[in-house]
Amino acid sequence: MKQERPAARRKSAAQFRTGRKSSGATAGSDQPEASAEETGNAEQMPGARGLRGRGSGAGRGAGRGNDGKARGKKGRKLRKWRSRAKAALAELETVRAQAPAYPVARPARMKQRHWGLIASLALMVLVPLVATVFYLFAVAEDQYASTAGFTVRSQDSSGANDLLGGLASFAGNTAASDSDILYEFIQSQEMAAAVEARLDLRSHYSQYWPTDWVFSIWPDATLEELVWYWQRIARISYDSGSGLIEVQAVGFDAQMAQAVTRAIVEESQIRINALNEQARADAMRYAEADLMEALERLKQAREALTQFRTRTRIVDPEADIQGRMGVMNNLQQQLAAALIEYDLLAGTVSSGDVRLKQARRQIEVIRERINIERQTFASNNTDTGAVGEDYPSLISEFERLTVDREYAEQVYRAALTALETARDDAARQSLYLATYIKPTLAEEPEYPRRAVLSALTALFLVLIWAISALIFYSIRDRS
Question: pTM of this prediction?
Fold first, then answer.
């Protein structure tokens, strides 16, 4: 029994290494292998030959008696796991066999489309960029710049305009200012023609034609073509808020650039003076027209008042009615005195006295005269001493004519004042050109900006090439 234990241990170790656990009910393929190994190990031990038969028989008997059931269960589980593993392995092999086999990717190689893309890059980007850089740095002539700044100022200053300036700028001004007019004038054909007559722009800017054909103009250019070229050599910046105008002119030499900016300033001053003259002429014309109209109105008002006095034979109805009211007051006083005298006589003499009759007759005459005078105020009967029209209508008409004459006189005086003011304004220059930057003289060329132009050219060429390639391949893939 002592010799069986090492053999059993070696058997268990061998089974563990091979992943097998034998039992009494194992298949014939497993049992012989374990017996051969056990037999080999037993034969190597001294004295093992004599005990082999007895030991094996004793082991079989003990195994069958004690471990038969446990080893049978383990064997069944092991066989079950093996069958499941074999089934899973067979299923995996079937799926692997049915799956498509992809070929291994070959190494990348240059194809025709790649060479075409590189060729298009060279033709559309590299060649134009090299040509542009060569032209800018080897062919293009240096250009000098001269700058001048000015604005339009006015001598008129209004406190109300200063106070309301913020509201006016917030609401917006629809009328064009003098600076706006000058800004458009500098870019116009008239300015280009005036500077051409002064400096002969064609001969200066065509001296490098056709070598530097990009920045030059052809000698036989028309006036319209010169105006197009004028936009390139005269750059204008204008601030509408402050009214500041800045002009920069370029030329192939510094003296020519300065002469161009000086000519622009002088022509602008001439145009401002012309605007001044036109404004003064308009102001004088309007003031004289207003004066003539006011004078004619005053003449008509005075003529109407004269006709009224001729028709009514009354110079001043108010004075005339005051005189008549004085007569009425005197008659009232006389009537009161006659009544008093009559009362005194009635108390002292008899009723048939002659003096009493005379006093009564005097009272009647005074009363009749008072009635006649009262009728003349509202009657148009000339028999009673009236003027043929009632006094209220005459006074109303006279007051209307008087008001018209006074108003015409005030308008005439205002027109005279406006004419004198227009003459005073015409005597001085109300608009003038204030130059805050005099035309400068350059010491070194600033244009053309070769590095900037080269970078912009490269950027746009790359963008055009990329967009063209994308469009081409998109159309090819769709077709």
Answer: 0.56
